[in-house]
């Protein structure tokens, strides 16, 4: 478990019995963690929460009406998630065929050569949370590590939780994931 003791934004979503915590990164990027009080189903325990999530609700939950800054003691597991997606079949199924055809592709806005075409398109995403902080693709954030006795709120992620990484200026969700098997 990674232990943090820091002033952070924390809130509680009463109707879902879920804590929400913001871990700020550099600039306007933050990781938000959604931690249900308990697990109500037999799979990962997150389905009830996932079924309630909408874009509008996420923004309501991270608002100043829900979250307040407090001196929080945080316990979260170390984890690293990596995913690789081949996008060529998906893009082709959406009608983007010309870009993959040598005779049809047109990339003259990028190069004077007229024989360019795409052979593959892929996306790779990584989220790494450890004692040095958290890293998501090219975005990095550091947090203070250590433990002190305190009477403020605690955020103990010792059971499944959801997380998302948000660029707050553009309101763009950069990553969204679930952590189902925390280990102490």
From TrEMBL:
Gene Ontology CC: extracellular space
Top-rank lineage group of the source organism: Eukaryota
Pfam families reported in the protein's UniProt record: Serpin (PF00079)
Domain Serpin stretches: 1-182
Gene Ontology molecular function terms on file: serine-type endopeptidase inhibitor activity
Family: Belongs to the serpin family.
Protein name as catalogued: Serpin domain-containing protein
């Amino acid at each position: 478990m990674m232990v943090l003791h820091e002033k952070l934004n924390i809130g509680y979503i009463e109707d879902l019995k879920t804590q929400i915590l913001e871990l700020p990164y550099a600039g306007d990027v933050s990781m938000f963690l959604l931690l249900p009080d308990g697990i109500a189903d037999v799979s990962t325990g997150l389905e009830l929460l996932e079924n309630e999530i909408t874009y509008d609700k996420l923004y309501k939950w991270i608002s100043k009406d829900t979250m307040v800054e407090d001196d929080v003691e945080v316990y979260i597991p170390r984890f690293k998630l990596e995913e690789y997606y081949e996008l060529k079949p998906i893009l082709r199924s959406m009608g983007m065929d010309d870009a993959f055809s040598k005779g049809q592709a047109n990339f003259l806005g990028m190069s004077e050569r007229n024989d360019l075409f795409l052979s593959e398109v892929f996306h790779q995403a990584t989220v790494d949370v450890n004692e040095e902080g958290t890293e998501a693709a090219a975005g990095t954030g550091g947090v203070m590590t250590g433990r002190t006795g305190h009477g403020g709120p605690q955020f103990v992620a010792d059971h499944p939780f959801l997380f998302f990484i948000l660029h707050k200026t553009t309101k763009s969700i950069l990553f969204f994931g679930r952590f189902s098997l925390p280990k102490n």
